[in-house]
Amino acid sequence: MSNTATNTPHYDTASVFVAVIGRPNVGKSSLTNLLVGEKVAIVTSKPQTTRTRITGVITRGPIQYVLLDTPGVHKARNKLGKRMDKTASDSMGDVDVSMMLFEPYGALNESELALVDQLRRSGPAIAVINKTDLVKAPEDLEARKAEIQALGVFDAVYTVSVRDKKNCETLFEALGRYAVQGPHYFDDDAYTDMPEKELVAELIREKALLFMRDEIPHGIAVVVERFKERPGTDLIDIDANIYCERESHKGMVIGKGGAMLKKIASAARVDCEEFLGCRVNLQCWVKVKADWRDNEFLLNSFGFKQESGR
Q1: Residues forming the annotated binding site for GTP?
Q2: If you ran DSSP here, which 8-state letter would residue 180 be given?
Q3: How far apart are CA 286 and CA 5, in angstroms?
Q4: Burial letters for 265-276: b for 16+ Cβ neighbours within 10 Å, e otherwise?
Q5: For 187-205, what is each residue's pLDDT tens digit?
Q6: Tens digits of per-residue pLDDT, 20-47?
Q7: Which tens digit of pLDDT belongs to each residue from 15-25?
Q8: Hey, what domains does the chain have and what are their CATH numbers?
Q9: Which of 102, 155, 164 has its CA nearest to residue 130?
Q10: What's the farthest any 2 CA atoms get from each other in the chain?
Q11: How many C-beta atoms lie closer than 10 Å to residue 121's C-beta?
């Protein structure tokens, strides 16, 4: 046998893991969905829509892009909020590059500046100014780019409009520069690592967020209890529990004569059928678990498990 050291294997493929970070409502989930080409993250105009780390996967030729859409950083008011912030900060340490989204106007808030500080310690990052469709004058955008570049943590600043699908394609080339030679971690036709049950639960929660007023939906969790294909048919039976924190909230989620619950379930069913590619029989029930957002056991059982510390 030869005594020469074994060479590192050569791969014709590469992967780049990307943390998508930024303040709430800056467009992280919308951008992730657009780049992936599939709906992997729910999107509403309400902050804190994304609660856990969502993985979006895009394979283009030799490069596989793995986008980790993280919860928007905010001032945590309960244990769920603290877990969401930890998920966002942990993601920055797990990736090849962070992609931080900004709005074109407004002062950077405390949470954004904290993220920028963290980026100084966690490796390479690029900045993306989203919502260029709202820019009133070209010089405004140039001033914003200069302000972000002056922070001294970003290798480059890009400008996009997710709404108009403008310039988003350029981000593949930008992120591809950070790709690391090696095997693809997901099948080339995969677009997320989330189980179907979790995606269905998220679609139901999205509809509750869309249809209900501000206060209640943050106190809502959705757990799919049954997900079963009927033998010999193209029909899946899905049973889901919608948990809220107060009896009064339960009444609002159900609505007069069950109207609100029916509206949520009907809209979610349409999305589920499109996503699963078959007919869906969706049954939803509303249950009360008081103050679940501050209950470690319930947070774990509802799927908000805290990943082991690094």
Answers
A1: 22-29, 69-73, 130-133
A2: E
A3: 63
A4: bebbbebbeebb
A5: 888 887 777 778 888 888 8
A6: 998 888 998 889 989 988 776 655 444 4
A7: 999 999 988 88
A8: 14-181 (3.40.50.300), 196-301 (3.30.300.20)
A9: 102
A10: 79
A11: 9
36, 192 Cβ separation under 8 angstroms: yes
Of 236, 253, 221, 231, nearest to 80 by C-alpha is: 221
Please, are residues 28 and 52 in contact by the beta-carbon 8 Å criterion? no
d(CA 160, CA 137): 15
Contacts of 42 (CB under 8 A, 6+ apart): 29, 49, 50, 202, 203, 205, 206, 209
Answer whether 101's CB lies under 8 Å from 118's CB. Answer: no
Residue identified by tokens 């490796």 is 123
173-177 long-range contacts (CB < 8 A, ≥24 apart) are 174/126, 175/16, 175/18, 175/65, 175/97, 175/99, 175/126, 176/16, 176/63, 176/65
Residues making up the binding site: 22-29, 69-73, 130-133
The pTM of this model reads: 0.65
